[in-house]
Specification:
CATH superfamily of the largest domain: NAD(P)-binding Rossmann-like Domain
Strand order of the largest sheet: 3-2-1-4-5-6
Distance between the termini: 20 Å
Strand content: 25-35%
CATH architecture of the largest domain: 3-Layer(aba) Sandwich
CATH class of the largest domain: Alpha Beta
Shape: globular
Number of helices: 16
Helix content: 25-40%
Number of domains: 3
CATH topology of the largest domain: Rossmann fold
Radius of gyration: 23 Å
Amino acid sequence: MRVIIIGAGEVGSSIAAGLASTHDVVVIDIDGERVDDLTYSLDVLAIQGDGTSLSALEKAGIGEADMLIASTDNDETNIVACSAAKAIGDVFTIARVKKPDLLETWNRSDKAFGVDFMVCTDLLSAQAIVTIVGLPAARDADPFAGGTVQMAEFEIPEDSPVTGQTVAEADRFDSLTFVGLLRGDEVEIARGKTELLAGDYVVVIGSPESVQRFGTELSPEATPDSTEEIVIVGGSEVGYQVAKMFEERGLKPRLIEEDYDRARDLAERLPNTVVMESDATDIEFLSREHIDEADVVIAALTHDETNLLISLLAKQLGANRAVAVVEHGDYVDLFEAVGVDAAVNPREVVAEEITRFTHQGRAENISLIHNDRAEVLEIEIDEDSVLAGRTLQDSMAELPNAVVIGAITREEECIIPRGDTRIEAGDHVVVFARTDVVDAVTAAIG
C-alpha cells in the first residue's frame, strides 16, 4: 500500500516509522531539516513542500496512493490537505485535529471536509488518561473483545509482593495471563521461569476484574474503589474533556484553573465538577485544598515544565498518584523516571491510533506497546487457522517463539488458555507478539 503522510513532526515521523517496513511511504513536510532527518533515519521517500498544494501531492504520487494521512499541528492545514487529495486522487484520507468541534461536525456529516477518518488529539488524550486512572498503577491499558478482555501495562514497584518472583510464582489469578516484560529497550516474552524485577513493566491480558485485582496487589494503596478524590490541574481542552468523562462515570472531580474567564466558563459547562480559580503551584492553596487526600492528581496544563512541577508537588504533599500530560515525547521517560506515575503524550496517543487504524484488516483490534516494539492483537479464528480445532499445546509449535496467546473469547466468555485448551473456528484470540513476528503470526492465525 502506498501511503502519503503530510507533516514530519512527532506524529508524522512516528506513523512513518510504524508503516515503513510494510508499506511504500512518502512524507511531505515544509521544513527541510525534518525532511533530511527522515531521509537518513527511515526507509521512506521524504519530500520538502506544502502538503496542501497540488504540485507537492502530485510529486508524491497522489494518483497511485491508497491512503493520505494529514498529521501536521494545524487543523486547517490537515483538512485542506485531505480536500486537495480528494480533488485529484481516489485516496482514503485521515486527518488529525485538536478541536473536538471539528470532530463533532465530521461525525454529523458523512465524510465532511473530504475526510474519510478523523482523530481528535485532545479527546484521545483524555480517554487515555481516564483509562489509566481506572487501573491502579497502570501505565497503559486497552480493552479488547468489546470489553470482555483487558490489556494493561504495569510498572513493578520495588516493594511489590511479586518483585523477585517468577511468572509461575506470581501467576495466582484465575483469569490473567502474563504475556510480556519491558526491560529497558528490550521486549521479553513472559515464560514461567521469567523473573519479575523492580522497575520492569509487565504486560498482562485477562478479564477486567482480574487485571484490576492484579493492579491492586501491585499498589494496595490505590484500589479502584478509592479513585474518587480526583484533582485536575489545568482547564485546557484535555483537562475539560477528562473532567467531563469522569462526570459521565458518576464522579465529582475538582478542577483548578488560573484564568478567571476560563474557570467561570468551565464551571458553567461542568455541573458536577468543583472548579477553583487559583495558581496550582501555590503550595499553601494546595495544602488548604487537601491535595494530600487526592487519590490522583492530573496535570493537564499546556507547559511540560509546569505539569512536572505540579505532579511532583502533589506527590510530595501526599497524593497517591500523579498523571501528567507531556507535549514533548522525549520527556515521557524523564517524567516517569523522576516520580510521575504515568505520562501521556498527546502526539504519541494520536500516532498510535492512526497507526492502529492503518493496521486493521489483519486484526479486529490492535494496541501498540513500547513505541511499537510489540503489539497486542485481537484475531478471529477461521477454518484455515493453525489454531482451529487444535489444543494450544499442539498448535503453538507452528508459531514464532516471540508470541503469547493471552486470552480467548467465545460467546462473550473470557477463557484464559492453557496447554490443553482447544480453540475453535469463530473464537477470538488476544495475542501478544513482538513487532518483528506480527506478520507471520497474523498469516498463521487469521
